[in-house]
Amino acid sequence: MNTTTTTPSAEPLSEQLAYLKLPFMLEHHAPLAGEAAQAHWDHVAYLARLAAGEAALRRERSVQRRIHQARFPVIKTLEQFQWSWPKAINRLQVQNLFRLQFVADQHNVIILGTVGLGKTHLATALGYAACLKGHSVRFATAVEVINTLAAAQRGGRLKQGLDSYRKPALLILDELGYLPIDKTGADLLFQIISQRYEHGATVITSNRVYKHWAEIFNNDATLTSALLDRLLHHAETIVIEGQSYRMKDRIES
User: Fold this and answer.
1) Contact assessment for residue 45 and residue 36, using Cβ atoms and an 8 Å cutoff
2) What local confidence, expressed as pLDDT, does residue 145 receive?
3) CA 177 to chain centre
4) How far is residue 61 from each of residues 21, 24, 57, 66, 79, measured CA to CA in Å?
5) Model pTM?
6) H-type helices in 105-182, by residue range?
7) Where would I find the H helices in the chain?
8) Residue 112: which of 128, 103, 127, 123 has the closest Cα?
9) Hey, what domains does the chain have and what are their CATH numbers?
10) Nearest to 194 by CA among 162, 168, 222
11) Helix crossing, 142-154 with 183-196: angle to 10°?
């Protein structure tokens, strides 16, 4: 009996790879097959190269998706930080945070200092590093959060609004204390901090030291005390001292 061996055509394979949404394999299976023939790879080595490429592409797309969802105003990295400008900063303490153990531990980081010292830069860099390591991140200014939640509350969608800030592994609240917060805003921020307590990591930047935080929250000492109690239970404080880097040229002239 004669048996005939047929070679599957590439067209059905391409259709199947497209259907399975395997873009790297779809684009590279043919050229890699030629490379495999020349290099005498076996079928397992050929498949491993295709699978590795597909996995790498998915990881990169996942990182880019997390970065997009984080809503950073601009991408910053630790390598870009101007260590020489602040008058005082604990460099080793900051660098240790980029191990991101505080995210895994669901602890908090509060970065304190006057304007122009790089608080937002460091907070954004932490968020970016977290995205690269597979963590979900959300960045927002304190005022943006309050306005978004107030609108959600008026529209009967407060739970959904709170969830968008409660669920990320890392929440970055920038510029807390730069503008006054009324009672409604203070209550909304308290709900976020309370719901994230021991459930997610939070990074906060502020130009106010803790003893003045009651002034931020409508001089509500009770609410401020309750908020700080939850926020600082598992927290690390970074203090940056000096003059604004944005005023550098004027100061040095």
Assistant:
1) yes
2) 97
3) 22
4) 13, 12, 6, 9, 23
5) 0.83
6) 119-132, 142-154, 158-166
7) 10-19, 23-39, 43-70, 91-97, 101-104, 119-132, 142-154, 158-166, 183-196, 213-216, 221-233, 248-252
8) 123
9) 10-64 (no CATH), 71-252 (3.40.50.300)
10) 162
11) 100
Summarised one tens digit per residue, pLDDT across range 102-152 is 999 999 999 999 998 999 999 999 999 999 999 999 999 999 999 999 999
What percent of the chain is predicted at pLDDT more than 70? Answer: 92
Best CA proximity match to 235, nearest among 90, 98, 108: 108
> How far is residue 127's CA from residue 243's CA, in Å, rounded to a whole number?
25
Residue 127, C-beta contacts closer than 8 angstroms, at least 6 positions apart = 70, 72, 137, 139, 170, 172, 203
- 43 forms beta bridges with none
**Mind giving me the DSSP string for 209-227?**
-GGGHHHHTTT-HHHHHHH
Mean pLDDT, rounded, for 204-229: 95
For residue 150, what are the contacts with CB-CB under 8 A and spacing of at least 6?
184, 185, 188
Spatial distance between the Cα atoms of 33 and 66, rounded to a whole number of angstroms: 33
pLDDT top residue among 8 and 124: 124
pLDDT in tens, 232-242: 999 999 999 99
Tens digit of each residue's pLDDT (9 = 90 or more) over 82-109: 999 899 999 999 999 999 999 999 999 9
CA 69 remoteness from chain centre: 8
Pull the structure tokens for residue 74. 């601009």
